[in-house]
Amino acid sequence: MSNVMLIILTVLFEILKKSNVQGQRTVYRLTLVKAWNIDEMQNYASLVALGKPDFIEVKGVTYCGGDSSKPNSLTMANVPWHEEVTSFVEQLIDLLPDYALASEHEHSNCLLIAHRKFFMDGKWRTWIDYTKFHNLMRYHYETKGESSFSAMDYVADTPSWATFGSVERGFDPSEKRWHRKNGTKDISGC
């Protein structure tokens, strides 16, 4: 490994260690690509232990095609099925005792791992009460930073349809879902 790469990694690790000191929400985002990074379970668990984020959003890669004039090794074969992303997340959670699977959006091939502190009174509170957040932020500025607040001060209930394991699988029932007219199975993994 070059000295430059070592310096970059050192700086990144320092950022990860300090990322949660302000008390505000922190999120790691991980895009899974089959045959590229889906087998790095222990390394991901180590990064989570280092930065202790509030949330980890895990999403299967979305294939957008490729430019035939440029080499591109990413294909539809690299797109994980939602069940594969779910399996990955469940295995990762086994290595992270302070975290649990809170939410999913099947259509986006995305799952949300949350720190257990966001599970209160028997329900997940992963959403943001934006009115409360803006009031807290305004007061913070009015007091020139004397008044502080944390991520826990503006939590809102996760809707039941967005929680992991719900019948809706993340689809808001007030929205219209469109299905293919020909009824053929989607082979994309999404």
Total beta strand runs: 8
3D shape: globular
Structural class: alpha+beta
Q: Classify the helix fraction into a percent range.
A: 25-40%
Compute the average pLDDT: 84
CATH T-level topology of the domain at 20-118: Translation Initiation Factor IF3
By CATH, the architecture of the domain at 20-118 is named 2-Layer Sandwich
Distance between the termini: 36 Å
Written account of the structure:
By secondary structure, the chain is an alpha+beta fold. It has a domain of 99 residues: Translation Initiation Factor IF3, CATH 3.30.110. The chain is 28% helix and 17% strand. Helix 2 links the parallel strand 1 and strand 2. Helix 2 crosses helix 3. The protein is globular. The mean pLDDT is 84. Keywords: 4Fe-4S, Iron, Iron-sulfur, Lyase, Metal-binding, Signal, tRNA processing. Its cofactor is [4Fe-4S] cluster. This is tRNA wybutosine-synthesis domain-containing protein. InterPro entries: Aldolase_TIM, tRNA_wybutosine-synth, tRNA_wybutosine-synthase.
